[in-house]
Amino acid sequence: MASADQGLSEHAGISSARMRMRVPSVAERVAEELRYQLAEGFLVPGAKLTEATIAEDLGVSRNTVREAFAELASERLLVRQPNRGVYVATLEAGDIHDVYTVRRAIEVSSIRGGGSAERIAAVRAAVEEGKRAAAAEDNDGLGSANQHFHGAIVGLAESNRLNTIMAQILAEMRLYFHKATVNAHFYSDWLAENEQICSALESGELERAGDLLLAYLNRSEQQQAAIHGE
Fold first, then answer.
1. At CA 145, angle to CA 25 and CA 120, rounded to 5?
2. How far apart are CA 185 and CA 208, in angstroms?
3. Residue 185: pLDDT band by 50, 70, 90 thresholds?
């Protein structure tokens, strides 16, 4: 039988393990907010970002913003130009295939794995959001709905790591899509396919949903490569 001291020691060990659970830093939360703004299309390629303005808007120090900028620069979402400042990146055409390789790996596997009723409902909600935006002729809203659709697909896997990867990918994709949206029908052209994919998912046709999504991503890559001159 374990002694009282042993029990206390084991309890202390468990408490210590709990105490060591990692809490995101303020700089990481600022970086997360900026990724969100990129993914939603609020920050456009080439836009200049200033530490002072963002620090004031988010209620944090300039040093914290500087750390967040460094994190996003390492992800190639921002670029620091000596003696000029920090700017939203304009992505290179050569990155397109790499980004879509990641998308195929995580989106297709996520949808083929299915998900809970709640997670599937989130995919449907993004489709319906897109329909409302299309009806209102809100192209920016339609773009955000499309981002939410793909984010919800990865959310089916219920993996924080995959969600983190997808947050970066969504930010990168929105930067590419800014150039594509000179075509007013860019996002609406994909809405019907989002509906088909979602319907297959809802009916439990997971392989079909995966096949539809894979074909969708392949066509999207070809379109982006053509737009960006790759």
1. 85
2. 26
3. low
